[in-house]
């Protein structure tokens, strides 16, 4: 298993300092970003050793007026990590905030960190 969660978190902090890995509880900020590792599994296993791992992240962007600018900024910093955007959609949210949900994925070599491709 490979852990890129800290890298995702640090990348998102360049967009806003209001980043969380749980549903936002404080809407005082105009921009809130939630991130979640949805999947982290072995995709290649040889000689009793994990070779490649697949990871998928969901990133939710909340804003009072528009999520567009923040979503573009999120896409840039997450793509720089090697994750590929596989979906992006607006979500109806009970908070009344604008809500955009973006999913990213990649396959990564566990030993070298090299990104191969998305699934």
Attribute tags:
single chain; 119 residues; alpha+beta; STM4215-like; six-stranded mixed beta sheet; 2 helices
Structural description of this entry:
This protein is an alpha+beta fold. It has a single domain (5-117), classed as STM4215-like. Helix content is 18%, strand content 46%. It has two helices and six strands. Strands 1, 2, 3, 4, 5 and 6 form a six-stranded mixed sheet that branches.
Q: In terms of topology, how is this protein built?
A:
Blueprint: H1 5-13, E1 19-20, E2 31-46, E3 49-63, H2 68-79, E4 84-90, E5 98-109, E6 115-117
Parallel strand pairs: 1-2
Antiparallel strand pairs: 2-3, 3-5, 4-5, 5-6
Task: Sum this structure up briefly.
The protein is α+β, with helices and mostly antiparallel strands and 119 residues long. The chain is built from two helices and six strands, in the order αβββαβββ. It has a single domain, classed as STM4215-like.
Number of helical runs? 2
The CATH topology is STM4215-like
Structural class: alpha+beta
Distance between the termini: 17 Å
* Strand content range: over 45%
Name of the CATH architecture = 2-Layer Sandwich
- Please give the number of β-strands: 6
Strand/helix succession = HEEEHEEE
Poorly predicted regions: none
| The named CATH superfamily | Phage tail protein-like
Helix content: 10-25%
- The average pLDDT is 89
The tally of domains stands at 1
Largest sheet: 6 strands, mixed
| Form type | elongated
Task: Round the Cα radius of gyration to an integer and report it.
Answer: 15 Å
CATH class: Alpha Beta
């Amino acid at each position: 298993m490979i852990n890129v969660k800290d890298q995702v978190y640090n990348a998102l902090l360049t967009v806003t300092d209001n980043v969380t890995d749980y549903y936002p509880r404080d809407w005082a900020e105009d921009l809130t970003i939630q991130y979640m590792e949805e999947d982290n599994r072995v995709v290649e296993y040889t000689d009793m050793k994990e070779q490649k791992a697949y990871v998928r992240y969901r990133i939710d962007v909340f804003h009072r007026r528009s999520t567009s600018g923040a979503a573009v900024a999120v896409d840039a910093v997450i793509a720089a990590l090697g994750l590929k955007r596989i979906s992006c959609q607006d979500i109806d949210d009970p908070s009344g905030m604008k809500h955009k949900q973006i999913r990213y994925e990649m396959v990564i070599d566990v030993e070298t960190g090299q990104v191969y491709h998305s699934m």
